[in-house]
Amino acid sequence: MLSPNDLEKRVVVPVLKSLGPKLYTPAAVELLMGTALQESGLRHLQQLGNGPARGLWQMEPATHDDIWDNFLLFPKQASFVVAIKKWTANAGDPTELFGNLNYQVCMTRMHYYRVSAPLPAAGDLHGQAAYWKKHYNTILGAGSEEEYIENWEAAYHEV
Predict the structure, then answer these.
(1) What is the pLDDT of residues 114-144, one digit of tens each?
(2) Are 40 and 57 in contact (CB under 8 A)?
(3) Which terminus of the chain has fewer CB atoms gathered within 10 Å of its CB, N or C?
(4) What region, left, alpha or beta, does residue 67 occupy, with left being phi > 0 and alpha being psi -120 to 50 degrees?
(5) First-residue to last-residue Cα distance in the chain
(6) Whole-prediction pTM value?
């Protein structure tokens, strides 16, 4: 497993900072870390059982494409596209979700940014778990809020 502190410090924080002050907040960092811990355990780049989800954040190509087609390609979002392109030469290509951690962070943050409800406050682990379940894993997803909290606590207490 990747070190959660290393991933946070060397990937998540720098990428979120590059996306701008709207997208970089302590709450966003925690939510993205919790999402990766729950979705992949920081271990898997392909969904178990050969499913479609990819990367540490287990984003499906259809979700990736929807973010591009129905959000990022609008002129109002041009600054985000410029920022994302700093992290990949293949912006818009869902195969980048396999190995490009920086791109994975960008796309996961864009997914959460599209949600109209504000992010839970930094330090509100229960709120983050509920937000993840409602807006990322959805009702059909196999994960639970309890697992999210357990995975967070296990990862950050091991360090």
Answers:
(1) 999 999 999 999 999 999 999 999 867 789 9
(2) yes
(3) C
(4) alpha
(5) 12
(6) 0.96
